[in-house]
Write a structure and sequence with these properties.
- Three copies of one chain form a homotrimer.
- The first copy, chain A, is α/β, with parallel strands linked by helices.
- Among the domains of chain A are: 92 residues, Udp-n-acetylmuramoylalanyl-d-glutamate--2,6- Diaminopimelate Ligase, Chain: A, domain 1 (3-Layer(aba) Sandwich), CATH 3.40.1390; 149 residues, UDP N-Acetylglucosamine Acyltransferase, domain 1, CATH 2.160.10.10.
- Chain A is 13% helix and 30% strand.
- Chain A contains five helices and 40 strands.
- Chain A is flat and about 85 Å long.
- The C terminus of chain A is likely disordered.
- Chains in contact: A-B, A-C, B-C.
- The interface between A and B is large, with 62 and 58 residues.
Chain lengths: 349, 349, 349
Amino acid sequence: MSKKADGSPVSLRVGELAELVNAEVAGSRDIEITHMDVLDRAGVGALSFIRSKRFARQWPTSKASAALVTRGMPIDRPAEGSGRALLIVADADLALVQVLERFAPTPTPRPAGAHPSAVVDPTAVIGAGASIGPGCLVEAGATIGEGTVLVHNVHIGRNARIGRACTLHSNVCVLDACVVGDGCILHSCVVIGTDGFGYRPDPQGRGVVKIPHTGNVEIGAGVEIGANSCIDRAKFGSTLIGAGTKFDNLVHIAHGVRVGRACLFAAQVGVAGSATIGDGVQMGGQVGVAEGLTIGKMARVGGQSGIMRDVPDGETWMGYPAVPMWEFLRHSPALKRLIDRREAGGEKA
Amino acid sequence: MSKKADGSPVSLRVGELAELVNAEVAGSRDIEITHMDVLDRAGVGALSFIRSKRFARQWPTSKASAALVTRGMPIDRPAEGSGRALLIVADADLALVQVLERFAPTPTPRPAGAHPSAVVDPTAVIGAGASIGPGCLVEAGATIGEGTVLVHNVHIGRNARIGRACTLHSNVCVLDACVVGDGCILHSCVVIGTDGFGYRPDPQGRGVVKIPHTGNVEIGAGVEIGANSCIDRAKFGSTLIGAGTKFDNLVHIAHGVRVGRACLFAAQVGVAGSATIGDGVQMGGQVGVAEGLTIGKMARVGGQSGIMRDVPDGETWMGYPAVPMWEFLRHSPALKRLIDRREAGGEKA
Amino acid sequence: MSKKADGSPVSLRVGELAELVNAEVAGSRDIEITHMDVLDRAGVGALSFIRSKRFARQWPTSKASAALVTRGMPIDRPAEGSGRALLIVADADLALVQVLERFAPTPTPRPAGAHPSAVVDPTAVIGAGASIGPGCLVEAGATIGEGTVLVHNVHIGRNARIGRACTLHSNVCVLDACVVGDGCILHSCVVIGTDGFGYRPDPQGRGVVKIPHTGNVEIGAGVEIGANSCIDRAKFGSTLIGAGTKFDNLVHIAHGVRVGRACLFAAQVGVAGSATIGDGVQMGGQVGVAEGLTIGKMARVGGQSGIMRDVPDGETWMGYPAVPMWEFLRHSPALKRLIDRREAGGEKA
C-alpha cells in the first residue's frame, strides 16, 4: 500500500483518478483505490493495467477493483454498482505513469549531517542539508553538494566532487578526483573511478606492468546508474558520461570512453576503452562495443550485439558482428516475421 | 583441512568412508583421510575423485591417499599395504556429494543480537536468535526472521521482510518493502529492490524522466542468489522469484519479471522487463531474454543464447537469435559432432 | 593537476620531459607542463597525446601546451616562442607510459593499524604497517600481510590469508580459508570465495539441494581484479588464479577453474566450472567459456565469443560458437576487410 508523506496510506476514488488521467469511467466512480497491482495477483482496492488482449481476457476473473485500458480494446465493461470500474483513456501507458507518480512512495527521509559512525575528513566540504549515512567514508578535500544523500557505507575518495540533490545508495564508491553532477542517482555497489584495464609488457618479459591512470571520471547532471555498474578512470583526461544519461544494472564503461547526453544503456552493456557514444544512443542488454569505436548520435543497438565497426548517426544495428538491422534481418527470416507480426499487432504482453 | 563443529579436524578411515558411500575397497582400509583434493595437487591424507579416463591416468603418480572411482573405469588397483586405496562405487558423482557433505565446514557461528556498530531502527522486529553483524543498517518497520544472519554491512530497507534461517552476506541490500522467504542465501553485494529501468520522454523534449517504481520484489523460500546479482522492483505489483530457484553470480532480473520455482540460472544471465520464466527452467551463462517474453516450464537455454521469441514448455533452445537446439545444430555441424562425441563417450574432464 | 608525495603539484618543463622520453622538441623547451589531457579538452599547462592522423588534425586548434607524437606523423610544427611544443619520439605509446608514470598520483596514504570502527578478531595476525580501514571485519585466524591496506568495509573470512603489500578496496570480500598472494590489487566489491553454483536433485524430487563447497580460492602474487568481479570456491581443492594475471571489471570465475599466469581477461568474461586456462591467455570482453574446457597457453579469444570446444595453444579464436579466427572471418567478409584496413593503416583512433 502506498503512503503519503506523513505515513498514512494514499487513497483515491475512481472518480478522482479519472480526473487525473482524463478517463471515461465504465462502472462505479466511488470505489476506493489504494495501490496498483497486476491483474492475476490484485485484490480489492487495487488498480490494474490492461495493455493487451491477453490482459483484457484476464479482467473478468481478476479481483482488481479497477483497471486502466486504452480506448478501443475489446473488453467486458462492468455495470454501475458492480463494485468494479474501467478507466478508459486515450493512452493507457501514459495514464499509468500519471497514476504511478500519484502513488509514488515518499523517499526515505535521511537526517542532515553525518552519522556518528561515518568517517569524514575535516577538510571535506559538506553542503547544507546533506546526509552522510552510517559507515560512510569521505576523504580529504572531497565536496558533497547541498541536499545530497549518502545512504550507507558510501566511499567518497580524495578531492572527489558530488553535486547537489544526489542520492548515492549503499556501498557506492566514487574514488579520488572523480566528479558527479547535480541530481544524479547511483544505485548500490556502483563503482566510479577504478583504474582502467591498462598494462604494458614487463621489461623482463614476465607478464605485464600496470600503467598509471592519472585521469578521472566526470558524470553530468541527472545521470542514473544501475546497481553494480562500473566506470573506470581515464589514463589521462576524463571518462565522460553526459547529462541525463541512464544506465541499467551491471554496466561496464572502460577508461577514456565518452558517452553523450540522454543515452539509455540496458543492463550488462560493456563499452571498451576510448569508444565514443553520441547523444541519445540507446543500447539493448548485453551489448558489447569494441575499443575506440564511434557510435553516432541517436543510433540504436539491439540486445547482445557485438559492435566491431563505427555505427553512423541514427542507424539501428544488430548482430554479432553487428550490421545494419535490415541486413541482420535478411539473415534471420524467422526473426523478421516475428517483428512484422508484432508491429502489425497488439498481442504482445 | 576440514573441521568438526568443535573446531577439531574431521578424520575418517577409508573403511569408514567405504561404509558411508557403499564402496568396494581396493587397497588399505585403515588409511586416515582428512580432506579432499584434486589428484595433481593432493598430498597424504587426501581423498581424490576420478571422473574420467584422463584422471584415471593421473592416479598412479598422484600423492593422494585414496580416490573415489566409478565401477568399470580401467585403473591400476593399489595393493593391500600399499598405503593407498580406491573406493569403487556405483556412481562416483553421487559418492562425491556424500563425502563433501561429511567434510563440509561448519558455518561460521554468528552471535545472536545486533553488533554494537549496527544501526537498527527501534520499530524493526528482530526474530529470536537472529544475528545483525557489524555495520548493518536495518530501517524502520523491517522484519528479520528467527535465526537469520546478516553478516556485515547489510542494508535492510523500510518495511522489508526477511524470513527465517536466511544468510545475507556482506554488503547485501534488500530495499524498502521487499520480501525474502525462509532459508534463502544472498551472497555478497546482491542488490534486491533497486528501481527498475523505466523512463518516459521529457515533456520539454530533453531526454527522459524517471517513472516511479511503486512495487517490490518477492523472493520465495530456499532461494540462493550469487554475488553481485541484481533484482529490480516492479513499477507496480511484484518482481517474483519462485521458491527453490538458484541464481549464480552477476545475474540481472529486471522490473516485473516472474521467475518460477526451482529454476537454475548460470552466471551473468540477464532477463529484461516483464518476462515470465516457468518452473524448472535452466539457463546457461550469459543468456539474455528480451522484454515481455515467456519461457515455458522445464525449458533449457544454452549459454550465451539471445532469446527473442517465446520458448515452449520443455524445449531446449540455443543461438543468437535462439532457435530450437536441433535447428541450431543444423547450422553448426562442428558443434554437433562435438556433442555426439561427448554423449558417446567418457573422455570429458 | 598531479601532485608530488608532499602534496605539491608536479610541474615539469618541456625540456625535462624531452629528456625523460628521449624526444626531439619542435617549439619551446621551457613551457611548464602540469598534467596530461586529451586534445579537445586540454588547456594551458596540459601535455597531450597524438596517436593517429585524426588527432594530428586536432593539434592546430587544441589549447594543449604540448603533445607527444611519433616521428613521421604529418603534423604542423609549432615555432620556437609560440608557447607550444611537440615532443617527437620513436614510439609515442611508450613515451606516454613514461610520462604517466612521472605524473602518477601518490596513492592515498593509509595509517597503519586498525581503525577504531574495524572489527578484528584477536586471533587474526596483522602484519607490520598493515592498515585496516573503517568498518572492516577480519575474522578468526585470518592473516593480513605486511603493508597491506584494507581500505573500507572489507571483509576477511576465517583463516583467510592475504599477502604483503596488497590493496583491497572498499567492500571487498575474501571469504573463509581463501588465499591472496603478495602485491595483489582487488578493486571495490570484488567477492572471492562464494560457494560455487553446484546442486544435486532433491531426493523428494522437489528442486535441488546445495552441494557443500569444501575447497577455497588461491590467488597468486601480483594479480589485479576489477570491480564487482566474483571468483567462487571449489567443491574440493582450489580455484586457482596464477601470478600476474589481470581481470577487468565484472568477471565471473566459477568453482574449480584454473587460470594460468599472466592472463588478461577483459570485462564481463565468464568462465564456467572446472575450465583450465593456460598461461598468457588473453580474452576480449564478454567472452564465455563452457564447463570443463581447456584453453591452451598464449591463446587469444575475441570479444563476446562463446567457447564450446578446447582451444589449442597459441591460437586465436572468435565467434559463437567460437572457431579459429580465419574460419570466423571467412563467414564475415565485411569484418575481414575492416581488419585488413586497420592493419594496413594508421587511421584508427
